[in-house]
Specification:
mainly alpha, 6 strands, two-stranded antiparallel sheet, globular
Length: 417
């Protein structure tokens, strides 16, 4: 009983949102295949953006609202390849390279700025995002076509400034629909279960047999992987589940990128730089006394976060199909912060599992709340207001809890002294 109470206390936010999402699914009246199909798309678009928040948190810098810089860097890459008329997968890859370079530069400057405002990183990163948005809009509304002359379809009719909305052309689904040997990597739900079940099974077998990690959790994960394989095989043969097979299409290639990012992040945490980030996040004064260059580590954390966010924004738009030039990046920081908090993260701690869970719950809520509100109140707008209330409410509560815990910790330390 004590363990259950402890688990519920530590995971009260995710558990609450599981209940809210379940009620939303029930009252929306939407079929499960439709909900799953939408959730697969939303997770594909947003997972990497949410994962980018982990690095600043473990480095003790809180929730990085400044990933807006990364989102803008991704859009810079996409705008430039649109001007150069590079299409398809080549366009996406070139955009990623450009975005990474721009994100490294922006992340470096942002990290330097945040080092000047230690203890106030979250509000500073938010204001920095607003400032950077102004610079971004100045460049693409006045410099592009005005100061820097060029001819392109994406310019406004006046010849100065980029259009509000840009079509991705053949770059849309360039990652999602990669073909290997003439076969599409976008498969039905049950084939995806078999594929990822086998992939996870191989990974955990490697951990158990080669790395000699015989912990109980690895065995449990291996069993779950086998269950996924069996579920995929059995489910694919059942006529009653044919709607799931037809409607829920999973882009294996993009999900492999997300899976690869998670594996790399986990491996990175075990490197010297990863351990330095943890040490700085735990206590930067002790870390500094141990010979760690605290400021440098913090800058590196912001650079990595910004680069991952830039790549995530490109993945987002290749799935969406149209670029919202001036407003597409504005809510990225707020939505991603809300998502990772819903997954159970805090200002001081965030894990890959919490980022994944939060992305699923947050976007499931986004999917079902308008229809649930329509059925309950005969007004779908209530669902939109509810989503925004939840988004900002979760952030506010998290910041309040962080301030309260910090105050309690200071009192304990003063009593010990």
């Amino acid at each position: 009983m004590g363990k259950i109470k402890s688990f519920a206390g530590k995971n009260v936010v995710p558990l609450l949102f599981v209940v809210i999402c379940a009620l939303g699914v029930y009252f929306s009246g939407t079929g499960i295949p439709t909900i799953l199909a939408d959730l697969v798309n939303r997770f594909d678009r947003n997972a990497l953006l949410v994962l980018s928040l982990i690095f600043p948190v473990i480095s003790g810098m809180g929730l990085n609202f400044g990933i807006v810089l990364g989102a803008m860097s991704g859009q810079v890459g996409l705008i430039l390849v649109s001007i150069w008329q590079i299409q398809g997968l080549a366009g996406i890859l070139v955009a990623m390279v450009i975005a990474a370079v721009v994100a490294i530069f922006c992340g470096f400057l942002a990290g330097k700025m945040l080092n000047k405002t230690k203890g106030q990183e979250m509000i500073t990163s938010m204001i920095l995002g607003f400032f950077s948005n102004g610079v971004y809009q100045f460049i693409f509304l006045f410099i592009a076509g005005g100061v820097i002359k060029f001819s392109s379809d994406i310019l406004l009719s006046s010849g100065i400034g980029i259009k509000n909305t840009l079509e991705m052309g053949t770059m849309q689904y360039a990652l999602d629909n990669i073909e290997i040997g003439g076969l599409s990597t976008k498969v039905d739900m049950f084939t995806a279960l078999i594929f990822f079940g086998a992939l996870f099974a191989l990974y955990y077998l490697f951990r158990i047999l080669v790395k000699k990690n015989r912990e109980r959790r690895y065995w449990i994960c291996l069993i779950v992987s086998v269950v996924l394989i069996l579920a995929g095989i059995i489910g694919g043969q059942m006529d009653s589940l044919v709607m799931y097979k037809m409607m829920v299409r999973v882009p294996i290639s993009t999900y492999l990128i997300i899976f690869g990012a998670c594996v790399l992040m986990q491996a990175f945490m075990k490197t010297k730089l990863g351990q330095d980030m943890r040490a700085v996040g735990h206590d930067r004064h002790v870390a500094s006394s141990s010979g760690i260059n605290v400021d440098k580590v913090r800058v590196q954390a912001i650079i990595i976060s910004t680069v991952v966010a830039a790549l995530g924004q490109i993945i987002f738009y290749q799935n969406l199909g149209t670029i919202d030039t001036y407003y597409g990046h504005e809510k990225v920081g707020t939505y991603c912060v809300a998502a990772i908090l819903i997954g159970g993260a805090s200002v001081q701690k965030a894990t890959i599992g919490q980022a994944i869970l939060g992305t699923l719950l947050f976007h499931l809520l986004f999917n079902v709340s308008p229809l649930a509100a329509q059925n309950l109140f005969s007004n779908s707008m209530v669902g939109g207001y509810f989503r925004m209330t939840v988004c900002y409410g979760v952030i506010a509560v998290s910041l309040i809890l962080h301030a309260w815990r910090s105050r309690v910790d200071r009192k304990k330390k003063s009593k010990e002294v």
